[in-house]
Design brief:
By secondary structure, this protein is an all-alpha fold. It is 90% helix and 2% strand.
Length: 228
């Protein structure tokens, strides 16, 4: 046991009374009170106060440990939420990139569509111009063909009429020559006169028939072209 003199005991007790500071730990169990009731009471209060402090420190330690566990759990949950948030942010960033790519492709498609539309309009204008030029060329060709046909018809009609007139004139001269020769020879002209008259009638009839047929063909051709 540890023995303490009376002066030290008095200092320890005064310190406890004035400032509330007393001995702590197992040392209070090792001090010999020497039947000093005041010092024995002092040591008892120090033990009680020390036990109370130990209990409070233990409770505080447990509380701090519990708070640390709660903080650890909360930290783990926060870390999990942070990981999920980072994953979500990554997915959002990827979605943003995908959207930008799709938007860029859409803009490119829109530009291509506008360009194709403009080219189609230009081609339609060119096609319309080509159609108009083709129609004009067709009309010019038809006009040229019509003029050529009319000229060929006119030339053909002129040729036919000219040949027919020459034939009529030739036959008329021949018949007239035979008739004159018969008169000069003093022969009977009754038969030749009747023949001469018949031949001239036939020639005139054929001439008018040829001219009428040609005019009818020309009229039918012109009417057919107008209907077309």
């Amino acid at each position: 046991m540890i023995k303490i003199d009376s002066n030290t005991k008095k200092i320890l007790m005064d310190l406890y009374v004035k400032k509330g500071i007393g001995l702590e730990g197992n040392i209070t169990k090792l001090i010999d009170t020497e039947n000093d009731e005041d010092f024995k009471k002092y040591l008892k209060e120090c033990e009680t106060k020390d036990a109370d402090k130990r209990r409070k420190r233990l409770e505080m330690t447990k509380k701090i440990q519990k708070q640390n566990d709660d903080l650890k759990t909360l930290n783990e949950e926060n870390q999990k939420i942070l990981d999920e948030l980072q994953t979500t942010l990554k997915e959002v960033e990827e979605s943003k990139l995908t959207f930008e790519v799709q938007n860029r492709e859409l803009n490119e498609w829109k530009q291509d569509n506008l360009r194709l539309t403009e080219e189609l309009k230009n081609e339609m204008v060119k096609s319309e111009q080509a159609r108009i030029e083709a129609e004009n060329a067709k009309m010019m060709a038809e006009n040229d063909l019509d003029l050529l046909q009319k000229r060929n018809q006119t030339e053909l009609i002129s040729t036919i009429v000219r040949v027919a007139l020459w034939v009529i004139i030739g036959v008329g001269f021949i018949t007239t020559g035979v008739y004159v020769f018969t008169l000069l020879m003093g022969k009977d002209t009754q038969v030749i006169s009747a023949t001469w008259s018949n031949i001239f009638g036939i020639l005139l009839t054929n001439a008018f028939s040829i001219v009428g047929t040609i005019m009818g063909i020309k009229y039918a051709t012109d009417n057919n072209q107008q209907q077309q």
